[in-house]
Design goal:
Strand order of the largest sheet: 1-3-2
CATH topology: Arc Repressor Mutant, subunit A
Number of domains: 1
Radius of gyration: 15 Å
Helix content: 40-55%
CATH architecture: Orthogonal Bundle
Number of helices: 5
CATH superfamily: Winged helix-like DNA-binding domain superfamily/Winged helix DNA-binding domain
CATH class: Mainly Alpha
Shape: globular
Strand content: 25-35%
Length: 112
């Protein structure tokens, strides 16, 4: 992923909203669409782009009673730093570490 790819994602309102909501929740595309008021087709397109850039990850696929597969997604990013210095752009992505993943899993089980 280039800095331009990342800046393009950050400049896009829907992509930012999707990254934000998937930081705390694991949702399918329909739930994302409904929660954010984004058209479903736009949601699927943005998710595909974010997944291709490895900013979100498909965490599971559930087969519905109708026989359809529902994919669930989660953000893999805990932070993004953008710096402009001496005419150059520098981007740094902080990804969730194993410690943070275990903590999130523990919190999920503690809620029940």
């Amino acid at each position: 992923m280039t800095n331009d790819d990342l800046l393009s994602v950050l400049a896009d309102e829907y992509s930012r909203k999707i990254l934000s909501i998937l930081t705390d929740k694991e949702l399918n595309a329909q739930e994302i669409s409904e929660n954010l008021g984004i058209p479903a087709s736009t949601t699927y397109r943005k998710i595909k782009n974010l997944e291709g850039l490895e900013l979100v990850k498909k965490t599971k696929v559930i087969r519905t009673l109708e026989g359809l597969d529902e994919s669930y997604y989660k953000s893999m990013v805990s932070g993004i730093d953008v710096k402009f210095k001496d005419g150059k752009v520098f981007c740094k992505i902080e990804r969730f570490t194993m410690d943070k993943k275990i903590q999130r899993l523990w919190e999920k089980f503690s809620e029940k």
